[in-house]
UniProtKB/TrEMBL annotation:
Keyword list, A-Z: Pyridoxal phosphate
All copies of domain Aminotransferase class V, residue ranges: 118-311
Protein name, UniProt field: Aminotransferase class V domain-containing protein
Basic and acidic residues bias: start-end ranges: 37-46
Positions of region (Disordered): 23-53
PANTHER family assigned to the protein according to its UniProt record, in alphabetical order: HERCYNYLCYSTEINE SULFOXIDE LYASE, L-CYSTEINE DESULFHYDRASE
Highest taxon of source: Eukaryota
A Pfam family reported for this protein in Swiss-Prot or TrEMBL: Aminotran_5
InterPro entries in the cross-refs: Aminotrans_V_dom, PyrdxlP-dep_Trfase, PyrdxlP-dep_Trfase_major
Keyword Zinc appears in the UniProt entry: no
Organism for this UniProt entry: Ilex paraguariensis
Amino acid sequence: MLLCHSRSLSLKPYSFISMATHRHNHRRSPEDLSQNGERHHNDTHNHSATKKPKLSLITAEELRSEFAHHSPSVARINNGSFGSCPATIISAQQKWQLKFLQQPDDFYFNTLQPSILKTRTLIKSLVNADHVDEISIVDNATTAAAIVLQHITWSFFESRFSTGDSVVMLHYAYGAVKKSVAAYVTRAGGHVVEVKLPFPLTSNDEIISEFRKALEKGKENGRKVRLAVIDHITSMPCVVIPVKELVSICREEGVDRIFVDAAHAIGCVEVDMKEIGADFYTSNLHKWFFCPPSVAFLYCRKSDKVSDMHHLVVSHEYGKGLAIESAWIGTRDYSSQLVVPEVMNFMNRFEGGIDGIRKRNHDKVVEMSNMLMKAWGTNLGSPPEMCSSMAMVGLPACLGISSDSDALKLRTHLRDCFGVEVPIYFRAPNDGEVDLVTGYARISHQVYNTVDDYYNFRDAVNKLVNDGFTCSLL
């Protein structure tokens, strides 16, 4: 067992990265921001469904306060796993919780449904859906996937689909979703075809080519492709998938249903239901959208094909449509589903609102990934245009990452001994490959991150390399 080094890489004081104070590539100091409400920007309410007084831009001090509950001893460059919730939104959630506890009956009969409808209306506007009835609020993207897969399973059981018909999904689909496909569709008689993608990736053409091959394989022996499961942003390894192009290909090839698993998408990439054109689309609101865990939306395009969609939990609202069923599945804490208006206000305090946050996160994660890649003499997992607010950075080959277990042990070692929180991905070498990068770090950038977070990661890895560390020592 390798003992931890004494922690020689102390975290530096919080230095504000200009998520609120930076226009394009020009950095302004916090003093440049008016605190008396006189300075506003034209896009403050770009995505708001209702007109409200304009908010002053957030200051550096206010931003630090919003995330002061984060552990100061950890360089948390892993927003992608669990997201982040500002203090303002935590406070708003607690008010909703107390409102319920003060008078649960009144809350149930008079407050809950119209409040969830307000959330659905805001999300409908944000994602450019046709109708609010197409938006349901559920616990998380995994729940949404199970709702969709249950619907597909019934189509097999009720003989609308034939035993052996295919489901096509990416090899890099989220693990829980792959298990859900096995639990629902495979048991119902569906045949699963995985799209094998290379990694690292260099262009969308590689993805499109492999996807077409998988569709052809899915149609072998007279099968029909009944469902395509397409990630918008894969989790590990992380890459932005050309969903519009893949959905269009599915339509051309006669795929029955298209489900986009976009757990990371909203707040991270552009999300437009009309442009994407899928039958189903889900995204978490607690990853990149600042909601408390856990909450997600599920979009179901209106059509006869999806008229019998139901929530997994059957309760009193059964038969009233998925959106209404989802809004009450029994006594529970619904507060995370109700704070979306407050979240919109929070994001509108950043220049450009949600669009500005998304762009600056992307630009900064690309900058930091390039810094790390150059420091270690490695490579990136994909070009910048295929990154979102996350990027894959190759780790030095001499660290000896030779298995998923090694990757997890190294992640733990970085957390425990250097105060760095970052996921590590193991890329198995192909036959004949030697001395290539087999470990990649998935770094995230969110508004609370500072340059020091990435410098601490860089310095921790450099120390391991200089000390002759390998994963075999763990």
